[in-house]
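Example record used in the benchmark description.
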Amino acid sequence: MDSYLNEKTVFLFNQNGDLTAHELFQLAEDSYPNGSPWPVESYKSELAGSHNKYGIALQKADKVGFIGYTQLFDEVEITTFGILKPFKNQRIGQSFLRAFIKQLKAEEIKTVFLEVREQNKAAIAVYERVGFETIALRKNYYHHPVDHALIMQLKI
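Model output (structure tokens):
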């Protein structure tokens, strides 16, 4: 387990054993504007996968954010990332991503990918601030509501 500290927030990675599918579902439900994009069963599958990992952001022992990712060789794909609504706009997400990238560098990861809703301008701005670039567009990828997905990449 690796941890990083921001002023009030601690970031912990490789937390699969300390998280439940119901907990992850609720974190996503409370983070995304349209609720969790995945049902509880998807989080169960993620936690069971040998290449899937999770990190959490804590403030005073309360979970305020999470990141899920798949690691294969020297590449990582961020599959889910969220900060609870009351903690948004406090730079926690940006600090979390910077700590995550630092962790990945230590593990000799070379490239990170993610997908984000084209209309999620706030998230896109955070990703761009930490160095991600848009490399492709998937039309009508998201549903409820329908939206395009931007594929973003960070070379470490």
